[in-house]
């Protein structure tokens, strides 16, 4: 910039250099604004450090477990950072960012949820010390970018490539992840199961990610962790219905998945059926029997030998009469399947759920059986 009061560009440049070196004076309002900015920065750093300090003691193989009581009264014992932070009710925006950071780490890597928060808290503590020394926040942020790039290059040079065909190395990696968990003493049993479960739902030749929704975990009360097993198929916690004497084991099964009810139709909420005499009651029962029998016959006609029934909220998904008819026809029934499990079953079996009996379809399976753990 050229100053008109200076007769040459050199003198003009010297003038602007003196102006830039001159101390900048603020009025009272500007001083208060600057102090407020510093207070906001310190508040953000302290909030992040508070979250990091809360889970710092659960880090590593010597870390301690946290006992958390949920809002519904359930008690949870864990040392997983993402689980602990999810159950924490944090209100500060910066603290919420650390919670989201832990969730992102869990989604991206599946481990290191505690470490990432502790490291973030330590870095922010170092930022606080630099701010006290007078460094500008922009300079600190730029230095972080350079440090991140340097760390990335160092980690890339230290990393050892591994393929999905190297099962033993994958098991070792999973065993290391489990070493700091509550079930660390069972890592020899669970690590191979976890690796085999993941390898069974992906194509090991070119897969880079895995859909964990394709792996279903079914829990049963009783037994020990050593009783855990991996099933190459679908496990239903409900088990097959055997009250009416239906089959509990079917080989070369034809499986069908329905979302309609095998029970008498219901009226609307504001309507009622009034039965005035015994003849009307008898006629009503005959019509109900005829309706349910017609549904069961159509299901049998489709060739279905194993019937999966979705759980209903508004009415009974099945009744004793329908179970009786299906048992007489030799059809195994697995009922009360949750709505959230329908998509998993449909994708696993490549079976389309149907909402009307006229559109029933079936898919072939090698074997469907009921065991002591509810399969």
Automatic annotation (TrEMBL):
GO terms for cellular component: cytoplasm. The keyword Nucleotide-binding applies. The keyword Chaperone applies. GO terms for molecular function: ATP binding; ATP hydrolysis activity; ATP-dependent protein folding chaperone; unfolded protein binding. It holds the Pfam family Cpn60_TCP1. It is found in: Cytoplasm. InterPro entries: Chaperone_TCP-1, Chaperonin_TCP-1_CS, Cpn60/GroEL/TCP-1, GroEL-like_apical_dom_sf, GROEL-like_equatorial_sf, TCP-1-like_intermed_sf. Belongs to the TCP-1 chaperonin family. This is T-complex protein 1 subunit delta.
